[in-house]
Amino acid sequence: MNRSRSVPPGGSGTGGGGGGCPQAQQSVAKLAFGGAAGKGGLATVLNTRGGAMIMKSVSIFLASGRRASAVPRDRASKSGDRAQSSDRGRGQQQQLQQQGGRRDSRRNRKILAKMDELNGKLNPKMLEMYKRRTHFSKIEVEALCKIFRKLVTNASLNSKALAANNAGVIAKAGSSTDGIDRSVFRELLHSTFDIVTEETLMERIFCAWEKGYEGLPIRLEGWILGLSTFLKGTQAEKTAFCFRVYDLNSDGYITKDEMFALLRNCLIKQPQDEDPDEGVKDLVEIALRKLDMDKDGKVSFQDYQEAIAEEPLLLEAFGQCLPSDRSTVSFLSTLQAQEEST
């Protein structure tokens, strides 16, 4: 009985760590041990050279069985790797498709926004977005869209009429879709919002109106967001806007030279003044003492904020860049009348 449980060299019992086919191993064991035992036992077989050869053959067979079983495992492993690689490939493809879908979605939103600008109206999602980002109601936002479209269309018609009456003038291509340009904006500031100031400050108001699009025609988004600050802005919003206007080179500071340029252009020169610049320099020193909170010789945004918080009248110290109260009430009344009529 003990001999029947002997382990052949290179093996590990029936179906052990060798990993060969169990049925084949059992058949070989019966052939090697069981048949011989029935004819006089294992000892008789082992005493012959043939018995040794059988044992060697058994070992070789079991070893080949392990190798043969390893091949399917290798194939299965490779197949699994290929499957994982295929899954990763599909995952990457899905990621690319999702990224492409997001890009398409952003592109579609831009196209829709452009179509909204052309039509002078907003889709419900854009309308809700502007309502959240501004101090206007939905009806007021819609009214501002109509005004924007009318201003841009009228400017385009005027440009074409000018080109038709003057052979040397060429109408600006695509002007009807660019936005509100300098000339229209300046006229609007003067006639609608009672801002009467010199050219430098007018230009600065235009450039500071839409952050990130300095000097470019004002888009629908910039028009709505800018008017929200202009007409209904908080003290903090108006402070930030005025600082951008006065910071002529957009370096984050209002310097003495910038103060001088702004105040000099705002003052009315008297013919009898021998040196009017001396009076401007005195005003600059006074403004610097009021606004330069950290006494470093220039006004940072933090300086400006602190000074305005203490004395709000200093908000437009270097020239008018916000609408008068009368014009604000009048313009908002127009928007509210639009709301009541719908």
UniProtKB/TrEMBL annotation:
Residues 234-269, 279-314 form the EF-hand domain. Residues 91-100 have a biased composition (Low complexity). InterPro entries: EF-hand-dom_pair, EF_Hand_1_Ca_BS, EF_hand_dom, Recoverin. Residues 1-22, 66-109 are annotated as: Disordered. Keywords: Calcium, Metal-binding, Repeat. Residues 10-21 have a biased composition (Gly residues). SUPFAM superfamilies: EF-hand (SSF47473). Residues 72-90 have a biased composition (Basic and acidic residues). PROSITE patterns: EF_HAND_1, EF_HAND_2, PROKAR_LIPOPROTEIN. This is EF-hand domain-containing protein.
